Structures are given as structure tokens and as C-alpha cells.
Predict the 3D structure of the following.
Amino acid sequence: MNIYFAAPMFAKSDLVYNTYLVKTIRDSYPEVAIYLPQENEAINDKTAYADSKMIALADTEKVLESQLMIALLDGITIDAGVASEIGVAYAKNIPILGLYTDTRQQGGEHPKKLAALQTAGENQFHYLNLYTVGLIKLNGEIYSTEEALLKGLAAYIENSEVSQ
């Protein structure tokens, strides 16, 4: 099984977290192949040169070769590249497992947080683009913890092995 790992990759913290999570998945499921774009030096060595078409063709090819996408949704907004990759995966009916760990989602039933929604500038929750979220949910799932994502991945792998 080929998995495409869609994630922001321009801050050191992004690179470290992506490496950590992909290593965790690789260690748990050595039978799967995970494409992590930051490992593709041909297009992502930022000291070298790759134009927009090279990047688009290389990553789109890997999305289309995958049977599953894992997409990290954290950040001020969903990373533009990740959103594009999600769109390609959705269009090709490739299931997507999203990870959204933003801690502002905690306490969703707290009455003061809910009341704050009625006051301009006091939204206690984070917003994700609902179009992109909808593309994921139409053919996948969004998880709020790494543990839940790994359980969802395990179930997906088990189900895909059963159906083969």
C-alpha cells in the first residue's frame, strides 16, 4: 500500500514533526510505503531549484500512485499545498485520513466558550475551511489525536487487506 503524507513543510517544527509521525507509522506498518514530500530532494532541496511545474508534477504523480492520503490540517489555515493535494486525492477517490490536533477545539460544550461566539472577536475555537473538510469527510475521516489517527490507519489497513 502506498500512502501519501500531505503536510506543511517549511518551518523546522513542521519538518521535525512530519519526520516523527512518518517514522512512527513506518515502524508500526513496515509493509506500507509512505511518500513524505520533504524527503524528495529533487524538488524540495530549498538550496537548489525546482519550478512550480516540477513540484506539481512530482507530487501529483505520488498522490495518484497512492491508495491512501494522510493530511495534517493544523496551522493558521490548512496549508495551501496540503489543500491542493487533498483536492487531487478527492478527485481520484483516494481515501483521506486527516489529523487536526488544534487544542482550541477542546471544551466545545463549555457554556462561556459557546456564549463568546456571540461577541465579535471572542471566538474561542479555530476555524477550518469547510470545503476542504468536506472533501476529506466525503471519503475519509478527521482525527483530533495522533493515537486516534493511528487507530484509524490500522482499521483502514486491516480493511484493505481483507478486501484484497
